[in-house]
Amino acid sequence: MPDLPIIIPQASNASRPFATHLMIHGDDMLRTLLGRSGVAAGIACLLFAGVSAGAAAGYPDKPIKLVVPQAAGGGTDVIGRLWADYLARQLKTPVVVENRPGANGILASSYVAKQPADGYTVLVSGVSYLAFNPHMYKNMPYEPARDFDGVSLLVNMPFLLVAGTQTGIRSLDALVARAKAEPDSLNFASAGKGNSTHLVVEMLAQKTGMKLTHVPYNGAAAGLTSVMANQTQVMADVLNTGAVQANAGKVVPLAVVGNKRAASVPDVPTLAELGFKDFPMPGWYALVAPKGTPPQAIARLNAETRRFFDDPAVKARLQELQLEPLPSSPETVAEWTARDSATWGPLIRQLGLSND
Q1: N or C: which terminus of the chain has fewer CB atoms within 10 Å of its end residue's CB?
Q2: pLDDT attached to residue 27
Q3: Is 159-257 a CATH 3.40.190.10 domain?
Q4: Looking at domain 19-157+283-350, does it have CATH number 3.40.50.1220?
Q5: Does this model's pTM top 0.70?
């Protein structure tokens, strides 16, 4: 998933719980790929199968670990740290943020899948890790449906489809018309092969019959720079970055890939307004826990997440980052995962993006 600007959490008072940070390096992460033994799993089942209402009322009684599959400052880290800080204050319990970047989220996801299902480990996941990865990696060490229970959807990161100022393209209709009239004459940039910024344009091209040539870059910033320099002609960038350049007159905004129009580019229509009512969202995030996590713990975390979205400071920060809140039930995470896996999977296979 593309990165967002860094957020620096305010220091917490020593007298209250806090969200803290721990970076785990590559060698440590690789060791986490070792699975739990059957004995350990059996003990966990015995311990939690009979959790009572009284025990649930005491949850949590020790620090909660929030695992983030990106380095500090990445988009997932920004979102996760905001939630962790809120949760620590509400539960009066420390929330430890562990950054475990690498392998497109596989290292972090595999690690969490093998942790005790006790309610004290949560993963910030999302569409890339839950719906894209199973189709991109044939021997992936985790399976979303088998290894995770949903806690809640978190946020959707809208995208902004833009064109270069020298292209003469001022609308999506104009882009489609040009691409059809001159097949493969237009190049589109992305943050990398198989990235959300790649797949969203491929999906749009498939739905419209456009023929575009993909030019992957090492990161979204490099891709957007290429559009501004007219080295490529089109890109779908994350909204909070693309809108800045659009308002500066350096790119032309064509459409918002999101649930509603964006305040930063209020005159730009959504894809739904332009006739693509069921276009999938390529940037949603969710919270998941190891499979078998006690329902009482899931329910408590879900309830706190719903309250998270009502917090004035959280609302202001999400608006600043141009992220759409997604309060939901725990079950919705699995529903969205299955739906988007069925939607994006065929495209990923068609593009030959599967890796051994």
Answers
A1: C
A2: 35
A3: yes
A4: no
A5: yes
